[in-house]
Design a protein that fits this description.
The chain is an alpha+beta fold. Helices cover about 30% and strands about 20% of the residues. Bound molecules: zinc ion (ZN).
Length: about 675
């Protein structure tokens, strides 16, 4: 429940958000708009698939700009572009390059993010790295249609490779992709009855349905709809699970059979489904299950089911950063529980798909909450080290016991592959796919600004090439400027999302204020767009103190969550090739409480070279905190915030940073019982 904030903060925030006139003038576009590649036409759902309000633009149509480009460049200079040079699992001996090394999911995971990164940055060296995996994969197909490393016939890693290949086709138009997919899907239709989905593939079937639908929209082969139905039948019934949700508390090892000393680490046969259905990454992938299936079924109830799914996960396992706890399994609501990096990027991708299918703007708010908080939080500034599990209240990252459901002693350390290497291979898709989904095509022939970050877009409306440039320091600021550059005047509806947190939106076109009444979360502008038309958006909003059901307080402004930075003492545990594994210990007190009603000031600073860094936070909040006694480390982490904190010292002003900036932090605070006087 939001708390009132001071009048001073209100005035400042309102003035800042409305100050469009103060925005820097736009430089003209550098280059004349280029036509979108002929290889990447807009593709809408082919009958009998259900129409959807938005369709993602082909990969490559949207390029990062401003701070987002800097973030992708950091990824490319870090593990994102150089992982293969220091981690054999995606190196030259990968099974997905014809070698004898790792032949399961890691090569496809890496490629799934490397491909869009390489093309979005137009980086020839990265493109060449990605191309090697593509070439080997395309050449690996056998006469029966199966492809990939012969040493491993699991359906699951192929589901990931299909996600990569569909992007590659959108980027290049390479016809070999359609041939490989057609032959493989024909093979699967024959082979699945005798060799059905199991384990990961069974719980992640919806990821393959995305690729099956993608191909059906290009070929119209009716066998593909049969295959989609077969995958659904053999796959786990996620929608049924959430109809009456049974998993309402932190998963115990016992509940999933991991407490048996006779078979350590092995989930017994009878508990495999329960274990996989409380698995954090499976749940993240499953967020797309009902919407994706609704495209095939045409059933509005399927499309709407994601709301119940998210509602149950929030209610029983929700963290203050827009996702549930899952360290490895669903872990309840304590802000000291962790969430795995794979779950963050898979939830983002699922929600990007679900946003296109449902048009639900609340899903866009959630994508931004993940992308602008949880995603960057779990990396060092240079993206050369990451965590397996991040915690909202993270006051030490040290080898040893933790409060985890089932994860091990390295789970929240920063490094090359802390705990397990899946996240090392899989994180790459996070930023590039966010970029891909910033704008979408609408079913009525228009364009929609679905997520906000600086970017350029090259696409078509009908047969007219349209370029646009979106300039903004969102989420650090609440204003966005869009310059349209159609090759010739063209009429189409332009939809602009109004974030759920915005109290009010102001929209101008060429300086003229427009009626900004949002319908289903989008303001719609219908007009003939001409070269140089400029749309400006401002979202009025105030910093907020948010109380959880447990009474904990966290702080938000726009799409950003804020946290108290704890002083960090970093030490190298061991070198790991081009990177290292690190521990981080606290060097300042973190046990503080906040009072309801305290004033919150919002202060904007320059957006630094590393967008989410504690060295140069682009916006901070200041408020008042009170030292408390009795809030201590338990089981290697901060105990849940005490219900009735005991104040042990004088109030002091504190500066809160965007959640992702400090790697040691407090995000959910104990709340004092008595409100302080308004200042
Ligand atoms: Zn992982």
């Amino acid at each position: 429940m939001p708390h009132p904030i001071s009048r001073r903060a209100l005035l400042r925030a309102t003035t800042a958000s409305a100050a469009l006139a103060g925005m820097a003038p736009l430089a003209p576009l550098h280059a004349a708009p280029r036509a979108a590649p002929a290889a990447a036409p807009l593709t809408h759902n082919r009958a009998p698939l259900a129409p959807q309000p938005f369709q993602p633009l082909p990969t490559g149509a949207i390029r990062p700009a401003g701070w987002l480009r800097r973030q992708l460049e950091i990824q490319a200079r870090g593990m994102g572009g150089r992982l293969d040079e220091t981690w054999p699992d995606v190196g030259a001996n990968s099974g997905w390059l014809g070698g004898t090394g790792e032949s399961w999911e890691r090569g496809p995971y890496f490629l799934d993010g490397l491909l869009p990164l390489a093309w979005q940055l137009d980086d020839a060296a990265l493109k060449a790295k990605a191309q090697r995996f593509v070439e080997w994969t395309l050449a690996s197909q056998r006469p029966d249609g199966m492809f990939g490393p012969a040493s491993n016939d699991d359906w699951w890693p192929r589901m990931v490779m299909l996600k990569a290949l569909t992007q590659y086709h959108e980027l290049t138009g390479d016809p070999r992709v359609l041939r490989l997919m057609s032959a493989y899907f024909a093979h699967q239709l024959k082979a699945l009855p005798a060799r059905p989905l199991k384990d990961w593939g069974k719980f992640r079937w919806q990821d393959q349905v995305v690729s099956v639908v993608w191909l059906y929209n290009r070929t119209g082969d009716a066998g593909l709809l049969e295959l989609a139905a077969l995958l659904k039948r053999q796959g786990y019934d996620w929608q049924g699970l959430f109809a009456d949700y049974p998993y309402r508390t932190k998963t115990s090892k016992r509940a999933i059979g991991l407490d048996r000393p006779d078979v350590p680490g092995e989930v017994p046969e009878g508990l495999r489904d329960p274990a996989l259905s409380v698995h954090g990454v499976n749940n993240a992938q499953a967020l797309k299950a009902s919407p994706v299936w609704s495209v095939v079924s045409g059933d509005a109830a399927d499309r709407a089911a994601i709301r119940r799914q998210l509602g149950a996960l929030d209610r029983y396992h929700g963290l203050p950063i827009g996702i549930y706890s899952a360290d490895e399994h669903l872990a309840g609501r304590s802000p000291s529980q962790g969430v795995e990096l794979c779950a963050i990027v898979e939830a983002m991708y699922s929600l990007e798909q679900a946003l296109a299918i449902t048009g639900d703007p609340a899903l866009a708010d959630r994508i931004e909450r993940l992308a602008y908080n949880a995603l960057p939080a779990t990396f060092t500034d240079d993206m050369w080290a990451h965590q397996y599990d991040q915690q909202p209240n993270q006051v030490r990252c040290v080898h040893g016991p933790g409060p985890w459901t089932t994860n091990g002693p390295e789970s929240n350390m920063f490094g090359l592959e802390p705990h397990f290497g899946c996240c090392t291979a899989n994180f790459h898709q996070g930023w590039p796919k966010l970029t891909t989904h910033l704008w979408m095509a609408s079913a009525d022939g228009g364009l929609a600004a679905t997520l906000y970050a600086p970017c350029t877009v090259e696409t078509r409306v009908g047969d007219v090439p349209v370029a646009l440039r979106q300039e903004t320091d969102y989420p650090f600021r609440h204003t966005v400027a869009i310059t349209l550059e159609p090759e010739r005047p063209v009429a189409f509806p332009l939809r602009l999302r109004v974030p759920g947190w915005a109290e009010r939106a102001t929209v101008t076109v060429n300086g003229q204020e427009q009626p900004a009444k949002a319908a289903q979360g989008f303001v719609r502008l219908d007009r003939t767009w001409r070269r140089g038309d400029r749309v400006e958006l401002a979202f009025a909003s105030l910093p907020r103190a948010v109380r959880s059901a447990e009474g904990w307080t966290s702080f938000e402004d726009g799409a950003l969550v804020f946290a108290l930075p704890v002083e960090e003492r970093w030490s190298t545990l061991r070198p790991r090739g081009l990177t290292a594994d690190y521990e981080v210990r606290p060097a300042s007190d973190w046990a503080v409480a906040v009072a309801p009603g305290a004033a919150i000031e919002r202060v904007e600073r320059a957006v630094g070279p590393v967008p989410f860094s504690r060295r140069s936070p682009a916006v901070v909040l200041t408020t008042t905190a009170y030292p408390v006694s009795g809030w201590a480390i338990v089981d290697g982490a901060a105990a849940p915030p005490p219900e009735s904190p005991t104040v042990s010292g004088a109030a002091r002003p504190v500066t809160l940073m965007p959640y992702a900036a400090p790697k040691l932090r407090v995000t959910a605070f104990p709340t004092m019982a008595i409100p302080t006087a308004q200042t």
